[in-house]
Write a structure and sequence with these properties.
The complex is a heterodimer of chains A (about 280) and B (about 350).
Chain A (H helix, E strand, L loop, with lengths): L3 E5 L5 E6 L2 H23 L11 H5 L4 E3 L3 H22 L9 H25 L10 H14 L15 H24 L17 H30 L4 H9 L1 E3 H7 L11 H9 L1
Antiparallel strand pairs in A: 1-2, 3-4
Helix pairs in contact in A: 1-7, 3-4, 6-7
Chain B lengths: L11 E3 L4 H11 L3 E4 L5 H6 L7 E4 L9 E4 L2 E5 L4 H6 L1 H6 L1 H8 L4 H6 L2 H6 L5 H4 L40 H7 L3 E6 L2 E6 L22 E8 L6 E7 L10 E10 L2 E10 L6 E2 L1 H7 L6 H11 L12 H14 L9
Parallel strand pairs in B: 1-3, 2-3
Antiparallel strand pairs in B: 4-5, 5-8, 6-7, 6-8, 9-10, 10-11, 11-12
Helix pairs in contact in B: 10-11, 11-12
Classes of the chains: A mainly alpha (about 280), B alpha+beta (about 350).
Chain lengths: ~280, ~350
């Protein structure tokens, strides 16, 4: 049983046509297994000790609510989430036996996702702290320290997180790869169906290229099943709820901020100019 | 086109003698089973070696699937009743002449002697790309070879195409829809009675099937209610040659009128989409209207709204417009004034 479905083209060429659909169940099981393993890890093994607290002088400057996500960022997130759920349901429910006009809803949701991602790229690049979501040297060092401590070795305590923990940054990186894969292949695949955007041209690529495109779209698609399960799981974990709530209300409490985040690594908006001057001193 | 090899792949042949046994066999073997009614569609698939079922369930030995039985509220036709029997049945000819006309226009006398009404309404599409075994959408692939700038699509769909542009080729299906027939289907969950138009599904819902039959399900009978008995019927089939051919398009209508006024009507066309279409908007638009050229023309124009022609089948749009017009006002009055 292979992970791809193959067919013979009219020219006698063996071509892949799509992924084997049992991978949907593999992705589902992988997501649920991760959820289970992580829950056990957090319950019995995780050690959450951080290096020293910030000085009281610094905490006094902080407002009661720490702004985390702008309105535009929040709108993007929820539009993207809605589009992603529609895409997943319209892609995979028909394979589970549910009948509806999935193709039309699928390309419409895909178009919404594409536009929202384009907005996000521009918004994050020019209006947000672009580098805050990318892993840096401190993240790697702290990850090493945490793994050493998990192994029972004595080492320096890791620092508190910046705006995003390393796991969050890595997840974002994987979503970028899978998201771009489904979007780019999905746009090309729209040339094979009737949409409002461009005339059909099923001969845009060779049969083999089309086949690989369908395979890549499928692999990234089932990958997103697992990634979505993981994302929703973290969103509803009790210790992460303040972060989830901040994606709705835009801010988190000062207490949570000080407990989880390092004010030096995530400088709160409005305080940044003052901090820079202080740091410069 | 695929070369007919005449040597079929090996399969296990089952010849049950009851509907219950047949349904159980189909349920046990699931997607590996192929139903054999008259065999006229199935044998092509087997000889071309495009479909290679492990099990073939031959229904020819099931007597309860054969024959035409009159009931108080209509007539029940067993799914294995031949098209010749349907076309020549006195009760069908007298009360439901629309179905007799449709059955009589299927293929050739020899084929009608062997072909069954259940097989005729449930047959697969004739799209040659699909039947040649190419990996198109309908065959589980990722392309429609007919819907391309150079695809040979003269016979294909102008309405409701969703990736696949194949059409349903049945002649009796639109007649059954016009007569408000119910299809009796035996499923693993029991017997179901389904409206004729709901028996068929388009590619938007499931691109690999033309009707609701899933593995383990079996069409056992077609029930025609007396609602439309002795109504005014119209059936017309347009084809490239006058015998032994599939329709380029067909139309069936059943009408009740009072004087010149159309009281009620059911109208259906086939070979314009992947399923026979009941034209409910046309029915609503002509109900209560005088049965004249203006009504027919308006109905014809309404019928083709939303039609999207392919490279080689734009002729189907005026053809459908005219057939609908003729189905409403008759041949003599339907000379098109464009």
């Amino acid at each position: 049983m292979g992970i791809l479905e193959w067919a013979t083209s009219p020219l006698g060429q063996k071509i892949p046509i799509h992924i084997a659909w049992f991978l949907i169940w593999v992705a589902l099981i992988a997501g649920l297994t991760f959820l289970l393993v992580h829950a056990i890890y957090v319950r019995y093994f995780a050690k959450k000790d951080f290096v020293s607290d910030p000085s009281s002088a610094e905490t006094l400057e902080l407002p009661a609510r720490i702004p985390r996500h702008s309105l535009a960022a929040r709108l993007f997130h929820w539009i993207m989430a809605a589009a992603m759920f529609v895409l997943l349901f319209t892609a995979f429910l028909p394979k589970a036996g549910m009948q509806f006009n999935w193709a039309t809803y699928h390309w419409i949701a895909g178009s919404v996702l594409t536009v929202s991602i384009l907005f996000h790229i521009i918004h994050a690049t020019f209006y947000l702290d672009f580098w805050s979501i990318w892993p840096d040297r401190s993240d790697v060092e702290d990850a090493w320290r945490r793994s050493q401590r998990f192994m029972g070795k004595t080492t320096v305590l890791p620092r508190k997180f910046a705006k995003y923990p390393l796991e969050n940054k890595l997840y974002h990186g994987v979503v970028i790869l899978t998201g771009l894969a489904v979007i780019i292949t999905g746009i090309c695949m729209m040339f094979r169906v009737r949409t409002i955007f461009f005339p059909r041209n099923p001969y845009l690529f060779s049969d083999m290229t089309w086949g690989m495109m369908y395979v890549l779209h499928g692999l990234a698609g089932v990958g997103l099943i697992t990634l979505t399960i993981v994302h929703v799981y973290f969103a509803v974990r009790p210790e992460k709820l303040p972060i989830t709530a901040s994606m709705i209300v835009g801010s988190m409490s000062r207490e949570f901020y000080l407990k989880e985040h390092d004010p030096k690594r995530w400088v709160v908006e409005g305080l940044s100019d003052q901090r820079r001057m202080t740091d410069g001193d | 086109m695929a070369v007919i090899r005449d040597v079929m792949p090996a399969f296990q042949l089952y010849q049950p003698s009851s509907v219950a046994d047949a349904q159980r066999l189909l349920e046990q073997n699931g997607q590996d089973a192929l139903v054999l009614a008259g065999g006229l569609d199935s044998m092509d698939w087997l000889k071309d070696r495009i479909k290679k079922p492990g099990v073939v369930v031959d229904l020819s030995g099931i007597d309860e699937l054969k024959g035409i039985r009159e009931a108080t509220d209509g007539v029940e036709i067993g799914a294995m009743t031949t098209l010749t029997e349907v076309a020549q049945s006195p009760v069908i000819r007298q009360k439901y002449g629309l179905l007799a006309q449709a059955a009589e226009l299927v293929a050739s006398p020899q084929i009608r002697n062997q072909g069954t009404i259940g097989g005729n309404v449930s047959q697969d599409t004739r799209c040659w790309y699909y039947r040649a075994g190419w990996p198109c959408y309908r065959a589980g692939g990722n392309i429609c070879y007919a819907d391309t700038p150079v695809g040979r699509n003269r016979e294909h769909a102008i309405l409701d195409a969703e990736r696949c542009v194949a059409v349903n080729p049945s002649d009796t299906a639109p007649a059954c829809i016009a007569l408000d027939a119910k299809y009796v289907v035996m499923t693993p969950k029991g017997k179901q009675s389904i409206d004729a138009q709901d028996y068929f599904i388009g590619p938007d819902l499931d691109i690999t099937r033309m009707n609701i039959l899933r593995p383990g399900s079996l069409l056992t009978a077609i029930r025609i209610p007396s609602t439309w008995a002795n109504a005014e019927f119209y059936f017309e089939k347009v084809r490239d040659r006058n015998v032994w051919d599939f329709p380029l398009m067909n139309v069936a209508s059943a009408m009740r009128s009072s004087g010149d006024t159309i009281q009620n009507i059911r109208i259906s066309v086939n070979a314009v989409a992947a399923r026979p279409l009941r034209l409910t908007m046309v029915e609503d638009s002509v109900r209560g209207k005088p049965r004249n050229a203006a009504t027919g023309e308006a109905a014809g124009k309404l019928a083709v709204q939303g039609a999207v022609p392919l490279q080689f089948n734009a002729y189907k749009i005026p053809l459908m417009r005219n057939l609908v017009k003729r189905a409403i006002i008759g041949v003599q009055e339907a000379a098109w004034a464009s």
